[in-house]
Amino acid sequence: MRPETRQAITTASATVLSALAAIWLELENPWWAAFSAFVVSHADRHRLVLKGTMRLVATVVGAALGLELALASQGVMLLQGTAIFAAAFFITRRRLISPYAYAWLIGMKMIVMMMFISILEPVDLVGFAYARVLEVGLGVGLCTLINILVPGDPASPPAAAAPGAKTLLEINQVALLAAAVALSIPLLWTWLELPSMVQVGITTLAMIDRDVIRTRDRSGMRLLGCFSGGLLGLLLVGLQLNTLWVWAGALFFSLVLFGRTYHGEGRWAYFGTQGGLALIITLVTSAGPPDSILPVIERFVGILCGALLIVTASYVFAPKAKGAGEVAS
User: Fold this and answer.
1) Beta bridge partners of 288
2) Is pLDDT above 80 for 265?
3) 265 vs 20, which has greater pLDDT?
4) 4 neighbors 263 (Cβ within 8 angstroms)
């Protein structure tokens, strides 16, 4: 069996198990556990533990800081917008020069998510923060356990080379892109009356690369991945997979397909990442198999709108195509 196929099976197993465990524990949003398992899973045990640790620690710290900002600015739109813009801008700048870039990315996403919740989906913010930490911790923990238990240690694809030194202009370009997208998400979602703003918005922010031009140049791969994963999820829901284990099996085999590409080499790897995440966000619900196709269609539309938002913003901030950068997953 090829290493990428073996790792795809391991990743799909960890992702489905995390989703089932979150559903059994009646956690609010099981897809966060599934997300965490899918993106952290790796054949290289060192990279697995490092990425899992960064995701968990950054989630805790980001949730705490985001909660404080959300409570301090609650009800004051100017303060809320300023907090979102500043957090996305300054944390993204820090991410571009830190060896722990992934931790900064997750922390920024958590802070911005807490602000989104306080604006558009008023709930118990403390309970929401605790729920996210539990879901992410569950996904990271189960993913780490399953990857460690898998016999052998299959060779993983070579790690991408570290990005070269960036100028202050390049750093500020990416930071402004992230800040503008973060600020525009609640405005656009309110104007267009789109659902699932928080989930889709946070997934959208993760699509921003270290290099603005690369964000634009690889936009086709992102759109194709989001469309493919979301469409497959939509088709599976249309088959009315009402039995939990049938639904879990369909999710598993679909994730193996995307995971095979995700863990492979070459330019299609990011297609697998986006396709897998889009599949999860459309197919995984708090109660197991979706009982209605309408919410799935709404989330599918939201995913495509988020991807188009990133593509549009990247053209605004990088009108001339030249250079390359590293993908932030």
Assistant:
1) 285
2) no
3) 20
4) yes
Which one has a higher pLDDT value, 118 or 12? Answer: 12
Q: What is the pLDDT of residue 166?
A: 61
Task: Please name the residue that has the structure tokens 């202050």.
Answer: 168
**Cβ proximity of 96 and 48 under 8 Å:** no
pTM, two decimals, is: 0.83
85 or 237, which is more confident?
85
Instruction: Tell me if 262 sits within 8 A of 8, measured CB to CB.
Output: yes
| End-to-end alpha carbon distance in the chain | 26
Report the Cα 329 to chain-centroid distance in Å. 8
Three-state secondary structure along the chain? Answer: CCHHHHHHHHHHHHHHHHHHHHHHCCCCCHHHHHHHHHHHCCCCHHHHHHHHHHHHHHHHHHHHHHHHHHHHHCCCHHHHHHHHHHHHHHHHHHHCCCCCHHHHHHHHHHHHHHHHHHHHCCCCHHHHHHHHHHHHHHHHHHHHHHHHHCCCCCCCCCCCCCCCCCCHHHHHHHHHHHHHHHHHHHHHHHHHCCCCHHHHHHHHHCCCCCCHHHHHHCHHHHHHHHHHHHHHHHHHHHCCCCCHHHHHHHHHHHHHHHHHHHCCCCCCHHHHHHHHHHHHHHHCECCECCCCHHHHHHHHHHHHHHHHHHHHHHHHHCCCCCCCCCCCC
Judged against a pLDDT cut of 90, whether residue 253 lies above it is answered with: yes
Place of tokens 């919740």: 117
**pLDDT higher than threshold 50 for residue 113:** yes
Q: List, in sequence order, every residue forming a beta bridge with 285; answer none if it has no partner.
A: 288
Contacts of 301 (CB under 8 A, 6+ apart): 194
